[in-house]
TrEMBL record:
PROSITE patterns recorded: GNAT (PS51186)
This protein's UniProt keywords: Transferase
Name of the protein: Acetyltransferase (GNAT) family protein
Keyword Transferase included in the entry's annotation: yes
Length: 193
């Protein structure tokens, strides 16, 4: 396995694989994936776009992560902004990187790839804070939650409802840069950046 930074065009070239990994990881239906495909294709052009991918030795996509500068006028940013008070907006949204997607193919999960991807993405990100949303779940049982907590993400909002989605989400954040040592150093067989 090797971890590589991706430029926007790298992501567009592998969009079928990206959507496939995303669908497998989240267990989403094909119709929803087509919509997400459109969003992802547009996201690569946003300011501050950063992406990483994990490739097998045969070049297959095992995982990916991406994000961009979060700002007014973006749907996600505006939803979160509207739910925060002035002090929280100032602290968290002034110069913020959003981790939009982070996924590992189920067959490759549990070997440190997700942590490696997150660490690499945050080391490339521009911002003084990083935010993300993740479905509410049992923190001890959810691999995503355990990963974010290990990286020091704290709660901004819990059981937050985005319009049109009946699931509750947590909005989590932490400061940048990643100054302290976070996990995922030395995962075997993975080349860092
Ligand atoms: C969340 C997700 C990205 C995490 O990726 P991952 O590769 O499975 O996560 P990691 O391997 O880095 O961490 C998983 C475990 O491996 C362990 N690990 C870390 N480095 C390791 C290594 N070098 N060797 C073996 N295990 C290692 C971690 O301690 C961790 O243990 P835990 O899950 O029991 O807490 C991935 O599971 C996923 O895509 N899930 C479904 C989609 C999803 O929830 N995405 C996030 C939505 S917001």
């Amino acid at each position: 396995m090797r971890l590589v930074p991706w430029q926007p065009d790298d992501m567009l070239r592998r969009l079928d694989d990206v959507v496939s990994v995303y669908g497998e990881a989240m267990g989403y239906r094909a119709e929803l994936l087509q919509t997400r495909r459109g969003y992802i294709g547009a996201h690569v052009r946003r300011a501050g776009f950063r992406a990483v991918a994990t490739l097998t030795t045969e070049g297959q996509l095992a995982g990916f992560g991406y994000g961009y500068a979060s700002g007014p006028g973006q749907w996600w940013h505006d939803q979160v902004r509207s739910a925060l008070d002035d002090a929280a907006r100032q602290r968290w949204l002034s110069h913020c990187f959003e981790v939009v997607e982070l996924h590992v193919r189920p067959s490759a999960q549990g070997h440190g790839i997700g942590a490696r991807q997150l660490r690499a993405l945050l080391s490339m990100a521009d911002g003084s804070t990083v935010l993300l949303s993740t479905p509410e779940a049992d923190e001890q049982r959810s691999r995503a939650w355990r990963l974010y907590r290990r990286f020091g993400f704290e709660d901004l909002l819990r059981d937050f409802h985005f319009p049109g989605d009946e699931r509750g989400f947590a909005i989590l954040g932490r400061g940048l840069p990643l100054t302290e040592r976070v996990p995922a150093e030395g995962a075997p067989g993975i080349v860092g950046i």
